[in-house]
């Protein structure tokens, strides 16, 4: 905000990497068409246990391919009570190099917000 660069480190680097991987559809980047995840395929599934299970599967597949610095421990999901078009996915991971545990919430939106 004040023109300075903010450097990330530690778990935040891995968290940002996972968010980027999951936010990109497979085939979206012409130079690397296999990069990303199939998470977008869960857009058309009702918000229930099936949607959470699909998200978990797609997120785990993409993370194991593209983020070798961390191992996913768990992905638990719930429907946002204030916004039924959003799943809240609680991600817990272990940093491979240090065995440090990190976690964050990844919101998955079933509709585009303009």
Which features does this protein show?
114 residues, alpha+beta, globular
Structure overview:
The protein is of the alpha+beta class. Helices cover about 25% and strands about 25% of the residues. It has 2 helices and 3 strands, in the order H-H-E-E-E. Strands 1-2-3 form a 3-stranded antiparallel sheet, with helices on one face. A hairpin with a 6-residue loop joins strand 1 (about 70-80) and strand 2. The model has no long low-confidence stretch (mean pLDDT about 85).
Mean pLDDT: 87
Uncertain regions spanning at least 5 consecutive residues = none
Number of helices: 2
Helix content: 25-40%
* Separation of the first and last Cα atoms: 23 Å
Shape: globular
Question: Biggest sheet, strands in spatial order?
Answer: 1-2-3
Helices and strands in order, then pairings?
Layout (H helix, E strand, L loop, with lengths): L10 H13 L25 H18 L3 E10 L6 E10 L5 E9 L5
Describe this structure in a few short sentences.
By secondary structure, the chain is α+β, with helices and mostly antiparallel strands. The chain is built from two helices and three strands. It has a three-stranded antiparallel beta sheet with strand order 1-2-3, covered by helices on one side.
